[in-house]
Design brief:
Blueprint (H helix, E strand, L loop, with lengths): L3 H12 L3 H17 L3 H16 L24 E4 L12 H15 L1 H6 L7 E5 L6 H12 L3 E4 L1 H4 L6 H15 L3 E4 L16 H16 L5 E6 L7 H4 L4 E4 L5 H11 L10 H7 L5 H17 L7 H15 L1
Parallel strand pairs: 2-5, 2-6, 3-4, 4-5
Antiparallel strand pairs: 1-3
Length: 326
């Protein structure tokens, strides 16, 4: 059941007509119910929220009175928001990586218990690795599992050519982080976290990095801050100690590729498909590239009115991805 604090928060958000906050709390209640074994009730709550979202009752930041610092709604141009349904069981991960994400979720789910002992859960995360290997998906999973919104920082709205303006916008984002609990994703983080002192260092980006270092150091919120980059070697060394955890993602090995193929093609007849041969051919591709190749093979099967997938059909799509990567 909802806690007393959650009931109070529900009433307050209803009185304030803050529908986004209201539904965020409902999702938190659903997550609590799921952990207590009330899976059916939790699912019903999530479905009600989904129905409200479909009717347009749950819209993006700037259209709902989510508590933000700037009264003119400038934050709506800096953040996009989503309420992911994806769960950890939807991801194919290396065992060590899965264990680390489970640990983050467990710490978040026992936030109050840890704080009662003077401890804080991991919530400032740096995700590194090749594109298409699950960094962005991890942010969605954390939001989905915890029943909180996912806010993605729009770098095109954040970074400007005017001195001091980007840092001011960054302050708005961290004010929102403090006021509205969620998962905040800084994707392509190397665009603002580049090492200081490089020959091509731009003064404004230098100031933005200094501002980010200060803001993340001072942040005492309950939100999760996630920075993701494909180029960790470009990041300033001072960034690493500001994060609670640095998680490295890698291209899938043969076992993971096989698991991914089986999971993606589970709805189709694949008893005659040579998955081992396909996995060997797909070596060196990312999770995203393999998923895309499977989708293309499925579309080709449908267009040609075939009743089942074939090894050659999937291999053709995989081979195209391999050739493009080379």
């Amino acid at each position: 059941m909802a806690t007393a604090q959650q009931i109070k928060a529900l009433l307050k958000s209803h009185i304030d007509r803050d529908e986004a906050r209201f539904h965020s709390i409902v999702l938190q209640v659903a997550a609590n119910e799921a952990r207590q074994g009330h899976g059916k009730f939790a699912q019903e709550l999530r479905e009600l929220v989904d129905q409200a979202k479909a009717r347009g009752a749950l819209s993006i930041v700037g259209k709902q009175p989510i508590p933000i610092a700037h009264p003119r709604g400038e934050l709506s141009g800096l953040l996009s928001v989503d309420y992911p349904k994806i769960r950890l069981s939807d991801m194919i991960l290396q065992p060590k990586l899965l264990k680390r994400i489970v640990r983050i979720l467990n710490e978040q789910r026992h936030l109050s218990k840890l704080q009662n002992h003077g401890l804080e859960p991991r919530r400032k995360l740096l995700l590194t690795g090749p594109p298409g290997c699950g960094k962005t998906m991890t942010a969605s999973v954390l939001a989905g599992e915890l029943g909180i919104p996912l806010f993605v920082v729009r770098l095109d709205g954040l970074i400007t050519k005017y001195m001091g303006e980007t840092a001011a916008k960054l302050r708005l984002i961290f004010d929102a982080i403090a006021q509205t609990r969620g998962v905040y994703l800084f994707d392509e983080f190397d665009s603002i976290g580049t090492q200081r002192g490089l020959l091509n260092d731009v003064g404004e980006i230098h100031r933005v990095l200094n501002s980010f270092l200060m803001f993340i150091e001072q942040d005492q919120s309950t939100s999760l801050i996630i920075a993701a980059t494909n180029h960790p070697q470009k990041l300033d060394f001072a960034l690493y100690r500001r994060f609670d955890d640095v998680i490295e993602y890698n291209l899938p090995d043969q076992d993971l590729i096989l698991s991914l193929l089986k999971a993606r093609l589970i709805e189709f007849e694949i008893s005659k498909v040579d998955l081992t041969r396909i996995a060997e051919t797909a070596n060196g591709l990312s999770f995203a590239e393999i998923n895309q190749a499977c989708d293309e093979a499925i579309k080709e099967m449908i267009i040609q009115d075939k009743s089942m997938l074939t090894t050659e059909g999937i291999l053709n799509s995989i081979s195209e991805k391999v050739a493009f990567r080379k």
